[in-house]
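Hello,

Following up on my earlier ticket. Below are the two sequence lines again, exactly as submitted.
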Amino acid sequence: MLSIENLHVSVGDKQILKGISLNIGHGEVHAIMGPNGSGKSTLAHVLAGRDGYTVNSGTVRYNGVDLLDLAPEERAREGVFLAFQYPVEIPGVSNIVLLKAALNSIRKHKGLDELDAMDFISLVKSKTKLVDMDEKFLYRAVNEGFSGGEKKRNEILQMAVLEPRLAILDETDSGLDIDAIKIVSDGVNALRSEDRSIVLVTHYQRLLDYIKPDFVHVLAGGRIVKSGDASLALELEDRGYGWVQQHAGA
Amino acid sequence: MSVQFKEHYVSQYSALQASLPGTGLPWLNALRKQALDRFSRSGFPSPREEEWRYTNVAPIERKLFSPFVGTASVDSASLARYRVDGAACLVFVDGQFNAALSTVPEPGEDIVICPMGEAMEKHPDLVEKHFGSVIQRESSGFLSFNTALFTDGALVFLPEGMKIDCPLQLLYVSASPDVLSTARNLVVAQPGSQVEIIESYVGLGDAGYLTAAVTELLVADDSYVTWSKLQSENGRAFHFGGLYADVGPNGRLDHSSFSFGGLLVRNEVHVDLAEASECSLDGLFLATGRQHVDNHTRIGHRKPHGVSREFYKGILDQRARGVFQGRVIVDQYAQKTDSEMNNRNLLLSSDAEIDIKPQLEIYADDVKCAHGVTVGQIEDESVFYLQSRGVDAVAARNMLTFAFANEMVGKIDRPALRSLVQDELLDALPATNLRKEWL
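Thanks for your patience. The regenerated structure is below:
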């Protein structure tokens, strides 16, 4: 469903991604691991369409379309979702307003009618249970004054409501304690399905104790230096990133 | 030219004198004549005056406005969108009370609510006692202008301990081209009384006009007044509106200002606080096109233990210019004053401009005074976040603009007023595809 071919990306004069190739099939969970500065977050942002990155070469095909050709909102409507490492606070816009605007723009794109108020509310409320979130949060401004854990849970709530086909979770575990990681992971696991592919971008193996990936890729120096199954993550945990970098001559 | 407009207004006064409210009252005639003299000497304020540094009213001098003498025809349906559900409403058309369009409450118990023309006949002593008492320390070209030429307005008098349950709306409608609307209001809340007033200024039609309205508000000991002003004048209108309030010991005034319309606008709020009295001044102003909106506030802490909270937000788009002047004066004896002032502005265009002037003058040594001002733009980070959720960039920017305004609109307790303000805000924003549900 997602096919990345030889992707080169720079920020300003600096080359960040130096030839990434990656294929993700329907329903697969891929973990992308790597040391700080390896380009993990850049990859996540480029897939979501953030400004400020120059794609110098390479292609990204997503369900048959050229993903890089689409505006960020078009990607979202086509089913791409990015859970932010640092979710943005938006004072004055309540969670419920954002969720409604987002869901309806996606439904409209699919040729569906907007949900009426009652159906929408009951849908959203049912999803709050997935991430153990108090319904009161729905009426608070998006992420404003939320703790780190609450912000990350809110990202997963949005994912649950929007039902993406490709979810990219950027360092969703960063800054969370074990309890919060467990809640977030339970939410993500509940959302695993045959027609939803998930990319977990993470520095640490511990998230993968809770969300078991089908594939693990190690990113270093802007390249994927090693790929394997879930056991690769454990090996990394034991031997550190130095091992793969050395191993790959990166 | 500058002489011509003064002569014009002096001659307007002479022509109308016999029909102005209170024309049979010698004390008022004397006040009007003094005011007219002052105006004919000094005219409208000039940018050379410190208080008017950022606002040049010369365009007002280049046109000659006249009070309407006749009955402008305004149908009730055209006012429906401006009426606050559940409020009693005094409607003034082109500066004159219109009984047919009004719903005047008769609360009894010595409460007085009536147009100024009627007040001068039925309650001359009451008017004489309080009229001019709040503004006597003030001097401004517009004050003199209003005192000399006011054609009507409202008198509201609450005796001790009285409370009016429903809000009272004062709706000023300008309907005729080049009309001069000069309302003069006097609101007296005697000790322990309570009232909510909503003041609305709207323009029907496209022609220009001048509104020069002045309100004196006396909030006596232990009284509580809630005052909202909604300025939705039309795009060619000139608007000067001044509220001058004295708040007595343990009294409280909550004032909110929503300023969306007009070509050249000056909103003034002056509050003097006695011992342990409080005021909150909230404001939201929006200007686009070539609008100029000046918000001028002055809070005087005269006695100890006063509390003031001020929070204004401005949104400026296209080539609009905004001004926020917040002056807080803490007198030598006003120890334990607690004052906070905040002004935040959002510039939506690189041609828009805001001038901010916080002015803290503190003469006491045991006080808490804080102020903060910001000017910002919509953040790309926030736009991208919304885009990544499927919202297009234009809608995202609109939503974030709304969000900025919503902080002030959301503070309105009364749902009917909140909804009305939201509608006016939607109308005033230049962007399309706006949705009320975002607020």
